Write a sequence for this structure.
């Protein structure tokens, strides 16, 4: 370790020593890619569709007009992905030539992606730019099946949508493929397929109305990740601001904020979340806000303690002597030194929020059908344990995701803990 | 130490205040009226009188008709509004529609202006537009009738004095008195008390005797006189009735003769013994179906109106303290007769009342029954957690960086990542459902016929049922506690006094068990603060999955059924238990570790 290493370099070198956490950090990349590229992997809408007269591009229209707003953000991320990679590589080179540090470049590239997503979403609100979803009412697999001769269509690798129902193949085990012919009561063999994607196997089976479990889990990943990140973002913001204010100003402010922290901590959190969601209504945004509003006290407490410690150190006095304002001292001088407990808590918080969302959906207080959510699949599974794939696979998904975030969190904790530093 | 505890107890007060504020906000967040939710989609105007009365009683029971935090209704003048309400309650819908036409035609007439002001204040949706539209008026008339009634119900006691003033006047049209009587019926639920509450209280005497005296004034000339023999006979029989217990008394009352009414009313009016009066009132209630008329049909004759009006005047006299409280009481009511004050009072005195579900069980009973189910489960889970986690954590710390440490840490980490409900569902799937193994039952805590078992078998049955839930409840917290005790032990092991102990030649087991362990247990003690709340709290999801009717299930159900009294009580009790257990832990801390004393520190509470 050379003398020029910054704090982040030290943390990073510590983090890399923890193999499990390091692997988990890299596992986040495919996890996010799965969430972002879900429509490209699985959708019942073809990329292009040639009906004998002209070529349609229904997938792109559906991509820009999703039913769920969560899907909209992820689709924008998908749209912005290629421009980001190109722009990111170019910008990164330019910044490196200017001698910018590794971490500054990385954070700027990440910020670039967020800017591009916001830009893309903003463009979609300009009238005339977003193409309308004029094929919403058409079921392309069915159309294609009816006149198979003339049609050329190209589907994503898994040609099922997250809300596409098929009562005939309800609760079917993994790798189920709809039989092409069935014997009817008169003993004749009749064609059973109705759609061009009927011959494709359901990799992880189907649920009670014949929706593909794997596809729903894929789209459910989007909901889980959104809930996790947004809820934790909300409560870390609230917690850091309130905790810093309480710790920095002390006195009456501290007493009031500490009482508020104590009051919110007193309520058992899952129960409080359940109550609020039950009263306010079930929507994914309400769930995120409620988790955020109930989760901040622990963060505020940690930050308050840390700020109290930092406030006594001389550099704060120095900053004040130089005439820095309170907000500048708090946010530019103290917080960078005091924020590590909040950063450590973030991955654990994300894991917790994912668990909470799944639990709420399992109880029927979470997202509403037909939105795909792991908890909702579990809810269907809990009605009849005979359909084991409805229990095992979502459980596995929750377990893997939660483990990944917990591993990253524990790695971060060990790396940021100065007692373990060598 | 003592002063520290006292200070902490004082700090609990503002926190509890915050708790009640948060609970109150949650209650107010409720969309619509929690009681209407329960009555279902019958709608406001379409309810039968029975449901309507039950609804009103319940609403007043929970004080939901009061203002939120400041009650100024005692100092407001309701006369004009109440008179208008009575006016609209008198008429039927076609009459109201006709009046609406007049109102729409000449809105600036002074009398019409007052009527319009009242109607606008009712909060009928889109009133102005609908009044302007002639085709809408018949339907608007229907709405006006319903809303005027609801207005009367909401005004409650405050509307009664002006209406009584109207009834007393000789100059008003008897027809208008009908409207007044309708309005009074909407405002007052069960105006008269005919029998004593059980056990009888002397405070009821004035109301009970007053009601029956009013009845007797009209009924006396029509009642048969009694001969002396019969009277003596009845006196003896009545004396016998006084000896009976409540159930037997009820049975005995089935056989009394309506011809003897005069005896019972004379006993009630003349007796000095509370018990005699109570029994006599019960007998009278059994004999007289409908003592005092309080409502009139729209086409009532003048005499009937006068009779009913007279009854209402008597009601007002009997309840004068309720309607005309003294000035100091009115000032007090500004702050104490509000929804918030009543809620705080219910919480502070732990009088949670009845739940808002159809069964109207007592909230306290409901919660107690749930605690009896979930507390043993949680106790077992906690014991399992402590028995496994602490040794595991300490072993991991002692054998730090060996394969034992790595194995334990890894296993614990996996456990930490399995949410309890996922573990529960997987366990149910593999061990209960029967496609794989059928070792444990699916649902509940007892077999269907468990009540007939001997206690040994009952216990085994219970343990058999409780095994998987306990496993689920323990898995998640196990990892946290073990990690915590590992860190605590690691901290201790690196201390100087452990090195000293080793240096003076103590055996390794003695160093660990005697010197390290005792000090490592101190931070673990802090986790006891989660012990009590967990004991009372239960787990919503695990109880949901395993079909256990404990605290978690109760809270889930009360949210689903919008049972606010239960919900509030649960939130409040949970908060108090957490608060107390935190305090308890701090005290325990000082007891165990003499180095820590809160008495000497300032402001570090």
């Amino acid at each position: 370790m050379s003398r020029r290493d910054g704090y982040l370099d030290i943390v990073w070198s510590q983090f890399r020593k923890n193999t499990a956490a390091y692997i988990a950090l890299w596992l986040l990349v495919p996890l996010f890619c799965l969430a972002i590229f879900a429509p490209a992997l699985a959708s019942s809408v073809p990329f292009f569709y040639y009906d004998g007269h002209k070529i349609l591009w229904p997938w792109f229209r559906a991509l820009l007009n999703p039913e769920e707003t969560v899907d909209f953000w992820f689709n924008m991320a998908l749209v912005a992905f290629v421009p980001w990679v190109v722009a990111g590589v170019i910008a990164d080179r330019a910044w490196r030539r200017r001698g910018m540090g590794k971490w500054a470049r990385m954070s700027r590239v990440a910020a670039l992606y967020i800017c591009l997503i916001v830009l893309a979403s903003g463009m979609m609100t300009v009238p005339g730019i977003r193409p309308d979803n004029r094929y919403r009412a058409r079921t392309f697999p069915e159309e294609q099946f009816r006149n198979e001769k003339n049609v050329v269509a190209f589907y994503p690798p898994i040609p099922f949508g997250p809300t596409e129902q098929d009562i005939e193949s309800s609760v079917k085990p993994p790798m189920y493929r709809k039989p092409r012919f069935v014997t009817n009561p008169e003993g004749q063999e009749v064609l059973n397929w109705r759609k061009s994607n009927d011959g494709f196997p359901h990799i992880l089976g189907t649920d009670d109305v014949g929706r593909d479990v794997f596809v729903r889990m894929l789209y459910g990943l989007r909901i889980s990740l959104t809930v996790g990140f947004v809820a934790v973002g909300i409560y870390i913001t609230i917690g850091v601001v309130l905790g810093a204010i309480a710790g920095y100003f002390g006195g009456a402010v501290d007493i009031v904020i500490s009482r508020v922290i104590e009051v919110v901590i007193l309520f058992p959190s899952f129960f409080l979340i359940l109550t609020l969601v039950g009263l306010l209504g079930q929507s994914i945004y309400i769930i995120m806000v409620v988790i955020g509003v109930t989760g901040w006290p622990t963060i505020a407490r940690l930050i308050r303690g840390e700020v109290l410690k930092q406030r006594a150190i001389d550099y704060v006095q120095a900053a004040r002597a130089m005439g820095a304002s309170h907000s500048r001292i708090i946010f530019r001088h103290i917080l960078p030194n005091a924020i590590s407990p909040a950063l450590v808590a973030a991955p654990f918080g994300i894991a917790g929020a994912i668990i909470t969302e799944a639990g709420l959906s399992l109880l029927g207080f979470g997202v509403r059908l037909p939105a795909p959510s792991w908890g909702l699949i579990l809810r269907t599974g809990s009605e009849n344990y005979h359909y084991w794939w409805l229990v095992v696979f979502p459980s596995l998904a929750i377990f893997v995701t939660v483990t990944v975030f917990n591993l990253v969190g524990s790695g971060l904790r060990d790396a940021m803990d100065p007692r373990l530093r060598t | 130490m003592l002063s520290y505890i006292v200070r902490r107890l004082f700090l609990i007060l503002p926190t509890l205040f915050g708790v009640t504020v948060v609970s109150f906000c949650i209650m107010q967040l409720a969309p619509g009226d929690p009681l209407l939710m329960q009555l279902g989609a019958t709608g406001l105007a379409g309810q039968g009188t029975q449901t309507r009365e039950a609804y009103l009683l319940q609403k007043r029971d929970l004080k939901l008709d009061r203002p939120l935090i400041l009650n100024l209704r005692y100092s407001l003048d309701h006369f004009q509004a109440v008179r208008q309400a009575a006016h609209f309650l008198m008429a039927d819908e076609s009459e109201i529609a006709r009046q609406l036409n007049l109102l729409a035609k000449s809105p600036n007439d002074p009398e019409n202006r007052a009527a319009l002001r009242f109607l606008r204040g009712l909060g009928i949706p889109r009133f102005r537009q609908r009044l302007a539209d002639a085709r809408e008026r018949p339907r608007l008339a229907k709405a006006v009738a319903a809303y005027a009634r609801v207005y009367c119900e909401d005004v409650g006691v405050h509307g009664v004095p002006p209406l009584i003033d109207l009834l007393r006047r000789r100059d008003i049209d008897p027809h208008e008195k009908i409207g007044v009587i309708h309005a009074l019926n909407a405002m007052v639920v069960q105006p008269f008390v005919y029998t004593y509450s059980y056990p009888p209280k002397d405070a009821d005497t004035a109301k009970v005797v007053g009601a029956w005296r009013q009845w007797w004034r009209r009924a006396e000339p029509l009642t048969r006189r009694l001969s002396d023999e019969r009277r003596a006979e009845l006196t003896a029989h009545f004396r016998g009735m006084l000896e009976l217990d409540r159930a037997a008394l009820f049975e005995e009352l089935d056989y009394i003769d309506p011809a003897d009414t005069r005896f019972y009313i004379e006993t009630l009016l003349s007796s000095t013994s509370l018990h005699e009066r109570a029994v006599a009132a019960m007998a009278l209630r059994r004999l007289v179906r409908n003592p005092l008329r309080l409502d009139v049909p729209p086409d009532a004759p003048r005499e009937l109106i006068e009779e009913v009006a007279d009854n209402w005047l008597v009601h007002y006299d009997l309840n004068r303290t309720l309607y005309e409280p003294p000035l100091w009481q009115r000032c007090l009511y500004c702050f104490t007769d509000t929804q918030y004050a009543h809620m705080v009072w219910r919480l502070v005195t732990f009088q949670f009342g009845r739940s808002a579900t159809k069964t109207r069980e007592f909230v306290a009973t409901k919660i107690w029954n749930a605690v009896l189910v979930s507390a043993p489960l949680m106790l077992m889970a906690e014991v399992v957690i402590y028995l496994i986690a602490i040794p595991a954590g300490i072993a991991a710390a002692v054998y730090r960086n060996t394969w034992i440490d790595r194995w334990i840490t890894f296993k614990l980490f996996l456990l930490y990542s399995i949410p309890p409900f996922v573990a529960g569902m997987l366990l149910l799937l593999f061990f209960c459902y029967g496609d794989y193994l059928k070792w444990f039952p699916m649902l509940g805590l007892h077999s269907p016929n468990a009540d007939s078992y001997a206690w040994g078998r009952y216990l085994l049955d219970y343990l058999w049922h409780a095994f998987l839930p306990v496993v689920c409840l323990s898995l998640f917290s196990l990892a946290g506690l073990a990690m915590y005790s590992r860190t605590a032990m690691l901290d201790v092991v690196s201390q100087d006094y452990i090195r000293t102990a080793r240096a003076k030649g103590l055996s390794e087991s003695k160093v660990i068990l005697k010197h390290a362990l005792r000090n490592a247990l101190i931070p673990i003690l802090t986790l006891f603060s989660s012990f009590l709340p967990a004991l009372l709290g239960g787990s919503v999801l695990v109880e949901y999955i395993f079909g256990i009717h404990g605290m978690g299930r109760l809270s889930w159900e009360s949210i689903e059924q919008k049972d606010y009294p239960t919900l509030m009580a649960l939130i409040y009790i949970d908060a108090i238990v957490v608060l107390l257990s935190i305090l308890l832990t701090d005290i325990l801390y000082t007891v165990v570790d003499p180095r820590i004393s809160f008495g000497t520190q300032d402001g570090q509470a």
In short: Chain A has two domains: 3-124, 213-420. The two ends of chain A are 11 Å apart (CA to CA).
